């Protein structure tokens, strides 16, 4: 599950913010903002992608670099979010 | 105001007249009223005239009494009547009423370093026949442009690079290293231009070219060494500033043609317009830009200013489509990659001015630089404040106060990420470029669009911030932070972007001369000596100017916060009603690959993304990338592949002086 999410997020970042550049050597732990992969105005595109792909709402208080600033952080966040959702629906 | 060009050739005794005519033809937009060429010995000088002073007798080149000194000149010396008095008293005989002739006589008395008390905006060339030397000089702030190409005993100069390229012997190539700098700080550094081996005389400098080669000298330098040296009461200083600006405006109204003004509705242009209206010209004509896109439009404030000042006002409405359509011409005139479309509306504005039969306008340009009007100065202050307590959660909240538009326009949800942006390199407060570091870094991320070859070419360069630091005055690090930030802004951006791409080039494209009272060197020197608190008071920008304006302009305009002048970007090219064909070729994989600056696959994906979103790109950086790539591609097309892209008819009625 986590691997699959990581791959999806990775594909989205490469396609949408690196314009298909697979040679950049993007690591899962690279910080988007610090390394200039996403600029602060582009973050909302990532949020839109997550909400659409995983059918949940990113709450305002979750919209922080600690959740969204690298492929690894995003994957963890999405995984937890889906788990909570599933737990909630059970 | 005019265009100048010339060839000095120590390898031949006859500069080519046909080439000089072509040089002139390429800058005839700067001066369509009369054309003159001087040919004598090793020198050929050429001039395209926009008649403003001494309409009947001022054709150039102009010479001294015994015709040993010849001048071509672009610009104005505003205090020429006063300088003339002194020169006549010491025995000089004048044959015209022009300010140009002042230069010939000043040169006789003072030699190349003739600038003391010369108050103006100018670029000139003086040929000294006796000593066989050429002097090139440029005004203190770099308001008027002056480019040159120098190789093997031969020098070509011109008001625009395109005139130099008229000579087929000059190689035409874009300099990848300069592209890299422009994709970092928006402008070429120092003497650099977009083009390899073409340089410019720096503001406040002059150069002497003789058989011994070329040497450049400074005669004036921007300095904040005396910042805070005046500690008289603020009201007294505000009064002094008022008098200075009154005089700076007064001498800028000297012309034998009517003078109008740009009125944006902001503090600066309203101030200048008020001075003119109240003291000098009760029937003032004013002009402004309006946007169909409400985010950029200032019409409401313009109307308030027009009502209060009762000027006869015209404005030009800019749609996204129109900006896209004229963009190629804008690039042709600015001769540099652009990361914004903001010059385009100014091109349309000067056209409006010209259609109303005005040749001269006063504007409020320069005030934001000298009185700390830009947000970046407040941003620097807040960052320094935050850096003293980097863990503070409260201090970064000041950015929301600073940029209410960005924080609300994008989405308040974005706040932590914006704070993260402003927190980059937070604690590097001793770095010389601290105020601008995060901007440079953010813009430099555009380098990821460069092709592999381009990346390799620029890889060996010293980091930009280090190269900039190497240009700084010796005592720079002892200046207060605000002065450092203002110097950084002015030395990089003022002449090489603002006064060129948004100033001289857009106005002169339609033969309109801008005049800038805030850039009178007396006003600049006054501002540099003020205590920093009198420029930026806590977070209130242009504090002293607001004090000076208090009883001059309506309070709601005097106290209005600054609105940055901006224009729409991506939708100008890919919006719903735009003609994509205008730009499609320049973004094509073939064209991008052939020119070699950018990665074709990435450019294609950026364009696909833009198209998918109906022309909108939400990211600031993507907007910059789009227009930066397009303008670079256009430059290559117009200046390298298809030069001259806008060919000129042969000039008629050129007066030729032979010696």
Contiguous runs where pLDDT drops below 50 for at least 5 residues of chain B:
none
**N-to-C CA distance of chain A:** 19 Å
| Category by helix and strand content of chain B | alpha/beta
| Helix percentage range of chain A | 55-70%
- How is the quaternary structure best described? heterodimer
The largest sheet of chain A, given as strand count, sense and whether it forms a barrel, is:
none
What is the H/E order of chain A? HHHH
Shape of chain A: globular
* CA-atom Rg of chain B in angstroms: 24 Å
Overall structural domain count of chain B? 3
Largest interface: A-B, 24 and 29 residues
CATH topology of the largest domain in chain B: Rossmann fold
Number of helices of chain B: 29
C-alpha-based Rg of chain A, rounded: 13 Å
Distance between the termini of chain B: 26 Å
Please report the total strand number of chain B as a whole number.
18
Structural class of chain A: mainly alpha
